Amino acid sequence: MNLKKFDSVSYRIFGKWVEKRSGEYLELSHKLMQAHAAVPYEVYVSRSFLISLLLSVPGGIIAFIIFYGLVGIPLLISILLLPLMCAAAGVLVYGLMMAYPYYKANARGRSIDIVLPHVVALMHALSRGSSDISAFFKVVASNKKIYGEISEEVKGTLIDTKILSIDFNSALKNAANNTPSESYKNFLESLSTVISGGGNLVAYFLTKSEQYRLKALNSNKEFMENLAVLAEVYVTGIAVGPLFIIVLLVVLGLIGGAKYYFFLLLIVYLIIPAGGIFFIFLLDSMMDGIAAKFIKIEEDLHHTREDKSILKGVLRERIYYFIKDPFKILVEVPEKVLWVSVPAGLIFFVLFTFGYYNLDFEQLIYMIDDYLIFTAIIILTPYALFVEVHFSKINQISSNFPEFLNRLVSLHESGLTVATSIKRLMSSNLGILNSEVRKINTDIELGDGITGAFRNFGNRVNTVTVQRVVVVIENAMKMTGNVKDTLVIAAGDAINARSMEEERSRSIKMYVLILYIAFFVFLYVVWSLVTGFFPQMPEAQSGAVTEIAGEGISISGFDKALYIRLFFHAAVLEGFFSGLVAGMLGEGDVRLGLKHGLVMVTIAYIMFMFL
What is the number of alpha carbons within 13 Å of residue 388 lying toward its C-beta? Predict the structure, then answer.
């Protein structure tokens, strides 16, 4: 659907009515601005009204189907409740639409708070040789991949000064009023005061750098506490909670019939996956900007695009490096292995299930669900392996890079030049960075200088931590030429970032173990039911009622194979989504949960092979 046309229609219907009540939407308008929604509040509210109306009827019908199936009240009463359900669905959709700008603004605010200490460290380094704040802002704005949302905030300030011809102090105040981050707001207001009062910028940035470093440590502790609470909620509500409901529904279903079995299907095929996906998105929004990753800073090749000989040379170079190390691209971008694993998995599935497609649906499910699991393992295992190598390399670089900078600073402070210090470091044990130190030394000897050597280093390594330091060194050297102070600031920033990463990792790994324990408890209870409880139940055809002799208890349509298959699906879904959540909790990236998910799914499959 063309959103502009949809907005035009919704505004024609509701726009005038919304404008008459503009006072009710002042806060929403401010949040839309903070969220960078690029849409006026009149259009957004009109859009929300129309979407909620369009979704109210289908939402009410879905709620009616679920409500009628679960509660089992008379059909006539349920039909009378249908308008109320439609209205409730519309109100729910409208509420979610109106809440989204607040959520988006808060998410941007958290992202800004995470990166702000690094931005202040950059400005501290630049201020030692220049007092041109707009030049500092240009550096931040031109490095969005490194500084994220704060780059967008800075661009707004530059637009005010360069295009709208607003003086810099007024532009800072406008940015302070419109930012979703309270910390960034205070920073801009204080900066405006220092500039207008002619204060010492170096001292100001030094003070703010230390202040935000301590604040980041406190925020990190608060973040870990919130993460621990969410982990406990997931374990209780999604990992273990459904288990007890499933056990209860199994017993009630044996006595009460199909309506409880319907609820059991809802738990297994909807609640468990939806709960896992919800927590993954929730954790992802909390960890935005925290997880380490590779980034590629694009070089400006516009001037070479028309030169065919240069383009051919670039292509030959890429082919050469691919032949030299074909797995490097898969380590840097693990998703590219899916171009091979997905077709391989699909070919496997089609070849081994081709003969079952003429069966009835229920028989088809019984025959192919094992092959679905094998297909998922074929597709995801290579991807999970390259993801592990990808993040292992990032962690090794992140661990050794602060030590590299520390040693470089120590040698330089002892009286050696930077070039001589790097040459000395060639004999040090810096793990994965040993080869990079040799390349840095080679670049310096070939005449690239310190700035060029570090720029080349950043292009080769491509992690956020390294790129951030490269930006500091490159721009500070241009403005100040003060190598020593620049390296000290860059080293301190890198060490602070690494210490927070390690603290988060240590404190949250316990919850990964708890998720494994919860999964094994799930499997144990299922095993006990299938091997202990089910054998005591008499077989019955679906819809038939069997009475246990002498007990006066009627069993309704108990199909052992059906229930075992249902438990099997529950265990597989529980294991897979618990694994993904474990990756988000323990390592900050859902892809790192694939190994946990595949391990749990494999364990569940092996267990059910013996049932």
Answer: 10
Q: Is 458 helix (H, G, I), strand (E, B) or coil?
A: helix
63 and 156 part of one domain = no
Q: Give the residue numbers spanning the domain of 76.
A: 3-109
Among 56, 87, 109, give the residue marking a domain's end.
Answer: 109
What are the structure tokens assigned to 94, written together?
């409208």
Integer Cα distance of 214 and 496 in angstroms: 10
Q: What is the largest CA-CA distance in the chain?
A: 96
What pLDDT digit, counting tens, does each position of 30-84 carry? 888 888 888 888 999 999 999 999 988 888 887 777 666 555 566 666 677 778 8
Token pair in block for residue 8: 């035009």
Q: pLDDT (tens digit, 9 = 90+) per residue, 366-405?
A: 788 888 999 999 999 999 999 888 888 877 887 888 888 8
Distance separating alpha carbons of residues 245 and 238, to the nearest angstrom: 11
- Which parts of the chain sit beneath pLDDT 70? 1-3, 66-78, 253-260, 287-308, 480-482, 536-558
Residue 80 half-sphere exposure toward CB, CA atoms < 13 A: 5
- Distance, in Å, from the CA atom of 84 to the CA atom of 347, rounded to the nearest integer, reads 48
Q: Is residue 433 in some structural domain?
A: no
Among residues 389, 377, 283, the alpha carbon closest in space to that of 334 is found at 389
Which residue, 552, 579, 528, is CA-closest to 247?
Answer: 528
Burial class for 371, CB neighbours closer than 10 Å (0-12, 13-18, 19+): middle
**Same structural domain, 79 and 146:** no
Residue 184 near residue 105, CB atoms below 8 Å = no
Nearest to 233 by CA among 579, 518, 567: 518
Residue 187 shares a structural domain with residue 93 = no
- Beta pairing class for 553-556 and 545-548: antiparallel
| SS3 label, residue 547 | strand
In eight-state DSSP terms, residue 357 is T
CA-based nearest residue to 275, from 54, 578, 48, 61: 578
What total number of domains does the chain contain?
2
Q: Which residue has the tokens 């081709």?
A: 354
Indicate whether 136 and 194 sit together in one domain: yes
For the beta carbon of residue 554, count every other beta carbon within 10 angstroms.
14
Report the DSSP beta bridge partners of residue 463: 294
Amino acid at 256: G
Residue 332 lies in a domain: no
CA–CA gap between residue 52 and residue 54 (Å, rounded): 6
How far apart, in whole angstroms, are the C-alpha atoms of residue 353 and residue 360?
14
* CB proximity list for 399: less than 8 A, separation 6 or greater: 431, 498
If asked whether residues 169 and 197 sit together in one domain, one would say: yes
The pTM (predicted TM-score) of the whole model is 0.77
List all residues 6 or more positions away from 383 whose beta carbon is below 8 Å from its beta carbon. 334, 335, 337, 338, 341, 591, 594
Residue that finishes a domain, picked among 162, 184, 212: 212
Task: List the end-to-end C-alpha distance of the chain, in Å, as a whole number.
Answer: 50
DSSP string covering 101-166:
HHHHHHHHHHHHHHHHHHHHHHHHHHHTT---HHHHHHHHHT-HHHHTHHHHHHHHHHHHHHTS--
Q: What is the pLDDT of residues 257-277, one digit of tens each?
A: 556 677 788 888 888 898 889
Q: What is the model's pLDDT at position 510? A: 80
